[in-house]
Design the sequence.
């Protein structure tokens, strides 16, 4: 694993870390979040179309199970290389390099960081891809020992293994662009990726079968790099002066610290994604279609979580810059606001998903080879999954707070490892009795355990958030979401048509969630009302 120059990643705050050029105002963050959210929703909707297309051509049977085993590699690579892993140590590193550039450091620290890290990381990504291609039969046997059609899974795995290289480059570009506070281009990557998979399914499904989806993954991964590379090149060319030549070898202690930061981040991301590995392993021993039911349920249920974490993605560089400048209080306030807002979004989505689950799955998937029985199973599994959505959101938000410090911390790894042990233990105990529902319950329980441990680990050595106050705000939001879920479910059951049932249930959930939130004085409603009132007065 490569290391970055000690001068760029040291924990001290450079004198210019809080330079005014950094865009951290509320207006900029709101616009950045809005654009990122819109593009992310577009990518997620295309992801739904991708899953609908897969369900239409192959249903929830052995072919789909074979592809989804191979799909484990892109899912793992996305977590390690795009969404969590690389971003958690590259965003702080680039933020500090940008701060040094603003402080008139010799040469260009940003370009020096790229020269020191990108070539070596690219070699690691390429090597990982080649190893996975060669070891595809063993990977399939390890991930799903009970899978009936292994050859199809092996073929798909060899195609999807290319994402170890392309996703690595994608994650590097995304982290660098976000540190430069360029959010539009990184948010488009999943649009290109899912569009490639959908196109491959329609063009190649007849001659290639389910292998067409794996080919789409390979092409989509390459497109994710192509759409970002020009923007990153332009940002690097704007740097002043020639790139500073990095030292051949820094102090041993500094090198060890850098390596430790990287490994803590990657181990955390690996533990987090291990939940999917455990699910596929346990579900491979169940009847055909179990892996597919879990996948469809998870993809739909996680859409509110993806949207809620967009805010944390946008503000992650802001928190890192604030901590680099020693502005702990500003970082604390930002993290607390992010957690409450993200919790509000995900709980509203959770209530809507649980209330309208049967109608939603029927509307999205019940056509072609996807039967009514598949709809019933997927909907019931999705309701169980949704119970852990707040935990998933808190893990994503709080982990960013921990890693914003740009120094070694083992708290996220400990929290995720404990959650994984919980998931595995409950899953092994319940899969024989409850089947896919036991696996989903294990997932929800394990991630909630990790979220509680991460929240408990926030303190003076990290970002000193006010835990009790934050827990109280989230508790009131949970109560409002519970009432909204009950009202939305009652409404949805009275409507026959799936589309109308989803719309009616969603409307009831939204209105009741807002009203109950106001009644319980749950944030962020009071502050939102004060802000709206202030703007009206200003206009008058």
Sequence:
């Amino acid at each position: 694993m490569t290391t970055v120059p000690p001068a760029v990643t040291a924990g001290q705050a450079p004198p210019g870390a809080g330079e005014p050029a950094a865009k951290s105002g509320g207006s900029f963050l709101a616009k950045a979040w809005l654009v990122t959210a819109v593009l992310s929703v577009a990518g997620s909707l295309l992801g739904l179309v991708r899953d609908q297309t897969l369900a239409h051509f192959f249903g929830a049977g052995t072919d789909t199970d074979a592809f989804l085993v191979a799909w484990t590699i892109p899912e793992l690579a996305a977590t390690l290389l795009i969404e969590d892993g690389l971003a958690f140590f590259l965003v702080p590193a680039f933020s500090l390099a940008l701060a040094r550039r603003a402080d008139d450091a010799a040469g260009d620290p940003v370009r020096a960081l790229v020269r020191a890290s990108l070539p070596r990381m690219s070699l690691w990504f390429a090597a990982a891809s080649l190893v996975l291609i060669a070891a595809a039969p063993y990977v399939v046997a390890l991930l799903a020992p009970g899978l009936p059609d292994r050859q199809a899974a092996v073929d798909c795995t060899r195609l999807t293994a290319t994402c170890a290289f392309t996703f690595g480059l994608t994650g590097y570009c995304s982290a660098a662009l976000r540190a430069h506070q360029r959010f539009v281009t990184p948010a488009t990557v999943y649009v290109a990726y899912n569009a490639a998979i959908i196109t491959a399914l329609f063009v190649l499904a007849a001659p290639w079968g389910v292998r067409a989806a794996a080919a789409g993954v390979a092409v989509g991964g390459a497109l994710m790099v192509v759409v970002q590379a020009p923007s990153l090149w332009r940002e690097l060319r704007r740097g002043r002066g020639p790139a500073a030549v990095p030292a051949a070898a820094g102090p041993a202690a500094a090198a060890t610290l850098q390596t430790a930061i990287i490994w803590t981040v990657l181990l955390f991301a690996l533990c987090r994604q291990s939940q999917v590995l455990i699910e596929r392993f346990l579900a491979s021993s169940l009847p055909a279609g179990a892996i597919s039911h879990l996948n469809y349920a998870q993809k739909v249920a996680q859409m509110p979580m993806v949207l809620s974490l967009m805010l944390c993605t946008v503000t992650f560089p802001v928190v890192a810059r604030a901590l680099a400048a020693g502005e702990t209080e500003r970082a604390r306030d930002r993290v607390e606001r992010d957690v409450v807002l993200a919790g509000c979004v995900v709980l509203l989505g959770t209530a809507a998903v649980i209330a309208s689950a049967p109608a939603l799955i029927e509307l999205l998937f019940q056509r072609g080879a996807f039967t009514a029985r598949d709809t019933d199973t997927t909907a019931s599994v999705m309701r169980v999954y949704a119970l852990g959505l707040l935990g998933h959101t808190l893990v994503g938000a709080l982990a960013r707070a921990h890693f914003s410090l740009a120094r070694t911390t083992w708290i996220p790894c400990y929290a995720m490892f404990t959650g994984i042990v919980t998931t595995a233990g409950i899953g092994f105990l319940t899969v024989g009795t409850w089947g896919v529902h036991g696996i989903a319950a294990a997932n929800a329980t394990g991630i909630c355990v990790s979220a509680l441990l991460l929240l408990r680990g926030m303190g003076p050595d990290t970002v000193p958030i006010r835990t009790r106050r934050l827990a109280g705000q989230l508790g009131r939001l949970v109560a409002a979401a519970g009432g909204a879920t009950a009202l939305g479910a009652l409404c949805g059951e009275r409507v026959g048509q799936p589309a109308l049932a989803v719309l009616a249930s969603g409307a009831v959930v939204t209105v009741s969630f807002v009203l109950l939130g106001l009644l319980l004085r749950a944030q962020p409603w009071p502050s939102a009302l004060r802000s709206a009132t202030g703007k009206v007065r200003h206009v008058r």
Q: What stands out?
A: Residues 111 and 237 are 9 Å apart (CA to CA). The two ends are 59 Å apart (CA to CA). Residues 1-22, 241-257, 528-536 have pLDDT under 50 and may be disordered. DSSP finds 23 helices and no strands in the chain.
